[in-house]
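Researcher: Go.
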Amino acid sequence: MYGLKEEPCADYLVHCCCHFCAISQEYRELQNHGFDPSVGWLANADRLNRGGAGASPMAPPTVATPMAR
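Model: Structure:
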């Protein structure tokens, strides 16, 4: 989405070989885009849906109602 380069190695290698580095990088990236990872997915989605301060264009995907039979 943001065109980030996978350097010096591919993302899957970072996740397989260095879990802590990958999680730290994801945490910082979310913060840079206006999210607060410490409050969780639902709190961030709620804040963005209300148009709270620092709302990011990268909103979490909305979950459609499950299919009914």
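Model: The chain has a mean pLDDT of 75.
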